[in-house]
Amino acid sequence: MSKKIRVLIVDDSAVVRQTMAEILSSDPNIEIMGTAADPLIAAERMKEEVPDVITLDVEMPRMDGITFLKKIMTQHPIPVVMCSSLTTSGSETVLKALEYGAVDIIEKPKLGAKQFFEESKIRICDAVRSASLARISRMKERSSLAVPKLTADAVIKKPVSRAMVQTTEKVIVVGASTGGTEALRIFLESMPPDAPGIVIVQHMPEKFTEAFAKRIDGLCRISVKEAANDDSVIRGRALIAPGNRHMLLKRSGARYYVEIKDGPLVCRHRPSVDVLFRSAARYAGKNVVGVIMTGMGDDGAKGMLEMKEAGAFNIAQDEESCVVFGMPRKAIELGAVDKVLALGRIPEAVLAKAH
Is the model more confident about 170 or about 153? Predict the structure, then answer.
């Protein structure tokens, strides 16, 4: 029997602490080491015992979450998952937390309708399990919660025939999860101004994707934006799926564009990499170069195999450069990958195939 992941919950709201404790305790692989109303109480608690993972609120009295995160990362690095309210104003701050070493971002649990609460539960438990793996990246992934895991069939049906023939325009499709914000920054900063159109699913909560896209846009020679429905996929631009919405690649004549749509969680995620990759297999086929990056679980593996069967060329990030070698490993095991490369070598390989 594997050791349970011990979690310290740091939040100034007693209701949030209690709800988070109930959610995380529902996962047989997780146990609550303790809770703290602010970072100073948390620091005292950590003198007695060091948690495997910390969930950390952003705004708290006495010391804010970002300051505490910096202290943790400089003194005693521990996987930290930032827990934030769903606000656009706070999203820039939380993105800073990822730069300072936080492993992931989660929304505070939604206490409204049952479906929202159940989806929050899945995302929160997955984020904590993923964070525990990020510290020991070669550790085997822990078993998932016993909840239904839908495939891309829930959003887009599998193509019955091979994708359309190759055209002159290539499209790059990318999927990433834990550790992906930094991996995507490195990848996109390497793209020349005339790079083929890029379509990306990064597992990230609603609102944060817009702030993330704006931040990356300021660093790159290409344009980077949060995708809107019917946005064209054009040279020199990357589109990032909006949090909490699925994104599909579509084609009308010679024009590629994206469709943004609602739907259930697929592979425990919305947006789902599998949904994007399946749509790419259906509508772009041989015109696609696929990339699967760091992240826990198997989202994207089946979709990548469908792309390969449709004639795409696929690249997976290697274990050494991944924060969590889950998604790439699953794609490799399925035989969906043509090349396994270190993160720094992926841009050159993508451009060589997409010329």
Answer: 170
Alpha-carbon gap, residue 7 to 53, rounded angstroms? 5
Query: Residue 341 above 70 pLDDT?
Result: yes
Report whether 315 contacts 338 (CB < 8 A): yes
Q: Is 203 a catalytic residue?
A: yes
Which of 84, 190, 203, 269 is labelled catalytic?
A: 203
Q: Could you list the residue range(s) of the whole structural domain that residue 227 is in? A: 153-353
Residue 329, Cβ density class (10 Å: 0-12 exposed, 13-18 middle, ≥19 buried): buried
Distance from CA of residue 324 to its chain's centroid?
11
Q: Annotated catalytic residue: which of 120, 132, 177, 190?
A: 177
Same domain, 268 and 333: yes
158 and 116, same domain (yes or no):
no
Amino acid present at 229: N
Region 15-24 average pLDDT: 93
User: In the predicted model, what is the mean pLDDT of the chain?
Assistant: 88
Tens-digit pLDDT profile for residues 185-228: 999 999 999 999 999 999 998 889 999 999 999 999 999 999 99
- Asked whether the predicted pLDDT for residue 146 surpasses 60, the reply is no
Which residues make Cβ contacts (< 8 Å) with residue 349, sequence separation at least 6? Answer: 315, 339, 341
The pLDDT score that the predictor gives to residue 248 is: 97
Please, which residues have CB within 8 angstroms of residue 219's CB and are 6 or more apart in sequence? 185, 188, 189
Kindly state whether residues 279 and 181 are assigned to the same domain.
Answer: yes
- 61 vs 38: CA distance, rounded Å: 7
Q: How far is CA 353 from CA 168, 240, 337, 339, in A?
A: 12, 21, 14, 11
Active-site residue identified among 27, 57, 299, 318: 299
Structural domain includes residue 140: no
Q: Report the predicted TM-score, pTM, of the whole model to 2 decimal places.
A: 0.85
Tokens of 212: 């993330």
The one-character DSSP state at 266 is: B
CA distance 123 to 74: 28
Q: Which residues neighbour 70 within 8 Å (Cβ) at sequence distance 6 or greater?
A: 100
* 177 catalytically annotated: yes
